[in-house]
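haha ok so turns out i had the wrong file open the whole time. this is the CORRECT one, sorry everyone. sequence first:
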Amino acid sequence: MKKAILYLLLSGMAFAGDNEPFTIEIRPRVIDDAKILVNVEVVNHVGRPVDYLEGFIAEYSGDKEFIGEERMVLVYNYEPALQTGFSTTKTTTYPMVGKKPPTFTFTISKVKFSGEHRVFAWHPKAGFIRID
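then structure:
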């Protein structure tokens, strides 16, 4: 009996994965050593359609110093909702300054689900936090 419980526990831990609600992928492309195109792709794994998705893209120098950030809306209220398993992509342009290209991070700041009036923030460690 103890072996069965131990086997069940170990198999449950092996098949239990991280349930990340969003997958964020950032792909910078250097064009003619003059500008950088940054594609931000977010995949919805929540299980509910996302009606509004907003975040901030932060730029860091080649020496990992913070340069600045700008707001980026990936899904607006008037667009079709982002369904589970689907992705959305937005592109922004930055000038190429110096020899080392900068690095970028994207942080989700607002999430609104289809059919709800509540607005959430999402953090990879804290999860969803209701902000409105």
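The domain at 20-130 is CATH 2.60.40.10 (Immunoglobulin-like).
again sry for the mixup
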